[in-house]
Amino acid sequence: MAWTPGHQLKSRPFVVDCVLGEGGFGITYKVHHQALNQDFVIKTPNARLINDPEYQKYLNRFIKEGQIVAKICHDPHPHIVRVTDLFEEAGIHCLVMDYVPGESLWKYVQNQGALSEAQAVRYIRQIGDALRVVHQAGLVHRDATPLNIMVRSPEKAVLIDFGIAKGLIPTTSTTTDKAGNRGFAPYEQMLRGNRKVTVDVYTLAASLYYAVTGQRPMDSFSRKLDDAELIPPQQLIPGLSDATNQAILSGMALEAKNRPQSIEAWLALLTFEPPIILSVTSSSVESSATVQPAKTAKTLPVSAFDFEVVTVEVKSGVLGKERKLTLNRRSHQAYHYIETLGDVPLEMVAIPGGTFLMGSPETEDGHSGDESPQHWVTIKPFFLGKYPITQAQWQAVAHLPKVERELDPEPSYFKGENRPVEQVSWYDCVEFCARLSQYTGWNYRLPSEAEWEYACRAGTTTPFHFGETITTDLANYDGNDTYGAGSKGKCREETTSVGSFQIANAFGLYDMHGNVWEWCLDQWHDSYEGAPSEGQAWIIDNNNDNHYRLLRGGSWYNNPRVCRCAFRFWNTPGLWSNYRGFRVVCGAAWTL
């Protein structure tokens, strides 16, 4: 029997508020925890199934759902619902989850109409990131439809309901393998119970189709059996970008082999970038400048630029004894503006906001305890220098009026206008940002450590944004040492001109690995215990001049392990060397 509003559970301090939904296998209730004064969701098996001969199978599946989500969210993911408890109440199994206020994407679109392309892509990218984590856990959700995507706020979506999730490798074959929402599931799932990741690719692409058009796409069965063509979403929404239109059509290809073979590959097709609106607002990260910009408004010509991204793929030879590195190249596009310092340009790249797992797993080669525990961090959009600050840029700013301290216009050991400036202390970098802020009217500062790692990774989870290893053809580090399947390379023993490798990460940033260490705003901490989760700099006492400051990225002097995305280094803020430099953040907000 289903619970009614006001029903009080005996085994836990919950009171039922209302029924949220009922499906073929389960019922969900909104409940209130009296002791915590907090709302939760309880899911129970559908009472109608109790007399079903296969009820035990359904019950086992129900319990498995709780175990699946608990496993995935050992580190809570901001876009995956969290399971908090699993218990029995009068013989009824109860799965307790966080209550996600809001409404499903299905209802949201029904009420609001088709979403803007920017809003729809934002939600789907968030769910795509959640599915990436699900797949890394060896599972396929198989039901990431608008009914199971909760719109928590105008900025956030959450994936729920793992009721028909399956492992990538089948251990049993049951009729539940063929479950799914016919309107959004691919043909091979409904017919054969397929559990490959391409199932989630199709469903997520179909969800995006619905979000941007306001119409449910033609189901895969009809397309297959009637040999019917899917109406391109661009035909329904003429203003839809080519990138989003093609991403949807590619993800919804009838044959699984014709779709992108991973969520990451499909998200890479989703390259729509809406126009950028700049506004002068307070940064989410405390400024290191000691003066406020003199101007209150400024128009900057933001434009697109093209660049090449490279990933390193390790291929095994005969019997796996020989390993070969293959460089896969692809073209990308991002947005930037150019600040002019006299006749010297400073290129600032628009970094989109997002959520990422900061730190490294214990299994990563070179992992150190200060890179733990891994934790989710949410980053707001910001601008970051395309390259480390060059000697020409340093000299231009060093000749601007002093704010607090003198700057040597030519501090570097390795000379060259386009080489990164080095032999600069943390205090020197702070002074540079203060002068630049005063000159431009924008709030320039050092990046927070979280911003730096997020920008370096650019959506990747590997040790380097290049992949599992690195070569001296891609970055400037000590090639006498190797990492992973990499081989020995050059040891240049000096800096190189910024961007000289002509390879960027997916955000359009160059030289994030090696060349020079880059100062960050944060003070040093021995681990991430208690670290901020919103991307701000981790500063305990800003008046403590002796507190160590963070550096990231490695340098020409270091071995490749030190150049990993997650590696952390520290030094006193007054010291300098010929392998330490920096790049800057612009604190002006950019919004869609």
Q: How are strands sequenced across the largest beta sheet? A: 12-13-14-17-23-18
CATH domain class name of the largest domain: Alpha Beta
List the total number of helices: 12
- What is the terminal separation in angstroms? 48 Å
Structural class by helix and strand composition: alpha+beta
In the CATH classification, which architecture of the largest domain applies?
Alpha-Beta Complex
* Net shape: globular
Task: From the 3D structure, determine the CATH topology of the largest domain.
Answer: paralog of FGE (formylglycine-generating enzyme)
Average pLDDT, rounded to a whole number, is 85
Detail the poorly predicted runs: 168-178, 277-298
Could you give me the name of the CATH homologous superfamily of the largest domain? paralog of FGE (formylglycine-generating enzyme)
The counted number of beta strands is 24
Note the beta-strand portion: 15-25%
Helical fraction equals 10-25%
Described by strand count, sense and barrel closure, the largest sheet is:
6 strands, antiparallel
Task: Walk me through the structure.
The structure is a single chain. With 592 residues, this protein is α+β, with helices and mostly antiparallel strands. It folds into three domains: 14-98, Phosphorylase Kinase, domain 1 (2-Layer Sandwich), CATH 3.30.200; 103-269, Transferase(Phosphotransferase) domain 1 (Transferase(Phosphotransferase), domain 1, Orthogonal Bundle); 287-591, paralog of FGE (formylglycine-generating enzyme) (Alpha-Beta Complex), CATH 3.90.1580.10. 22% of the residues lie in helices and 23% in strands. The protein is built from twelve helices and 24 strands. Strands 12-13-14-17-23-18 form a six-stranded antiparallel β-sheet. Strand 13 (323-341) and strand 14 (344-351) form a beta hairpin. The chain is globular and about 80 Å long. It starts with 13 loop residues before the first strand and ends with a strand. Mean pLDDT is 85; it is low at 168-178 and 277-298.
